[in-house]
Amino acid sequence: MTIEEALREASVILSNVSERPRLEAEILMAHHLRKERTWLHMHGDSDLEDSEGFWRLVDRRKKSEPIEYITGRVSFYDIWLEVGEGVLIARPETELLVDMAAEVVRKHGLKRICEIGVGSGAVSVVLARKFPDLQITATDISEDALKYARKNIAAYGLQEHITLVHTDLLEAVDEEACEMIVSNPPYICREYLLPHSVRYEPQNALIGGECGDELLKAIILEAKRRGVPHLVCEMGYDQRESIAAFCKEQGLPEPRFYKDLAGLDRGFYLRLR
Fold it and tell me: What is the pTM of this model?
């Protein structure tokens, strides 16, 4: 069987689980052969080596395992991150969270920020690369997530710029360490039926409570208690009203909400003082 024949067959198999079966087949093939996808286009007539290995990858994806877990990496912003079981896969919409946080850092000349829920390190790594003078304290309750964050931080030589702390929210972080909090916390309600592929990811990085906004509110309260001037969070598309009402209840300014590329509310910036 040639590479092109295998790609065609894999595309048919993956059409049941993917909206982009040909692309995913090529990603799996490139990963299997340790080549770039462009190489496949020029060598489609070549015989496929170790075809069993390739079909094992296709079978994993057929069972809805995220392709990022299969290949062990995900593209985010302008970097590649190592990911695997136990860590949330960074999504394109979180790049908007980075953009909002970067806008605040730049405008106010911030030097010390905290990230709650560092995951694979996506947000902190990109921000540290954008702002070489920035010091980031990044926390996570999951040791599995911190393991990947350490690898990704080291891969970009940012150990002197990002400090990882194993804790819930900012419990083990010094009160004076933060001019801004940035976070992409779990914000999905418990009753929401997750797609099959998402069920492979750690549920504690996805489910935010019975209503979904509980952790977002806890982070707002943490920022208020500490007197942190700036807060930037990602949120669910349907949580704008509850977050705005909660801030009003707490005597805080109305947040500045931002939308994703689909025009849905996706996060907010809150200037506390």
Answer: 0.92
